[in-house]
Specification:
Helices cover about 40% and strands about 15% of the residues. The protein is an alpha+beta fold and about 180 residues long. It has one domain: 2-Layer Sandwich (60s Ribosomal Protein L30, Chain: A). A 4-stranded mixed beta sheet has the order 1-4-2-3. The longest helix is centred in the C-terminal third of the chain and has 21 residues, at about 110-130. It is globular. The model is unreliable at about 10-45 (pLDDT under 50).
């Protein structure tokens, strides 16, 4: 049986249009690597700061900011986020012994798997930006917490916008 050229063209157009669409939040099957190569963990481990790292965390937050925010379903670095990351890179240059963990976070909407993947992309975007600003990759780790660790337990756009973030956490002091 021979197919008409019109039928073949229609099938090709449908196939290509299906490839161009973004998956809906509830259709992502599992974690996806971020641009920086981060993988979304199955069970994120809690961070327990030492008194010394807690003090450095306070200094980072006060002097540079320790959190950048993202738009809905996005891991693009905004102008405001870039300003914060430039300040973080400068702070890290002044504190070369500090290693950080960059945690990607999401709001409560979407599946756990989708949000873990998006959080990994957000953490990777922050890490990649800091690398471009001169921070050594060996000084940074990334993790995705997805929607598991909201900073605002509310439900609504104000809470969701606060929960869509990349959080830079002082992890430890590396080798001197």
């Amino acid at each position: 049986m021979r197919c008409s050229p019109l039928f073949i063209a229609a099938c090709a157009a449908l196939t290509l249009s299906a490839c161009a669409k973004r998956p809906a939040p509830d259709t992502v099957a599992g974690p996806i690597a971020s641009p920086g190569g981060a993988q979304a963990p199955a069970a994120p481990a809690p961070i327990t700061p030492s008194p010394q790292t807690a003090s450095l965390q306070d200094a980072l937050a006060a002097q540079a900011g320790d959190r950048v925010y993202f738009g809905l379903d996005s891991y693009e670095i905004s102008g405001e986020a870039m300003s914060t990351l430039q300040a973080q890179a400068a702070w890290l240059a002044r504190n070369p012994q500090v290693r950080v963990l960059i945690a990607g976070n999401c709001d409560e909407r979407g599946t756990r798997e989708y949000n873990l993947a998006l959080g990994a992309r957000r953490a990777g975007a922050v890490r990649d930006t800091l690398v471009r600003l001169g921070v050594a990759p060996a000084r940074m780790q990334t993790v995705s917490y997805g929607k598991e660790r909201p900073i605002d337990a509310g439900s609504g756009e104000d809470a969701w916008s606060r929960n869509r973030n990349g959080h830079t956490v002082v992890l430890d002091l590396g080798p001197r």
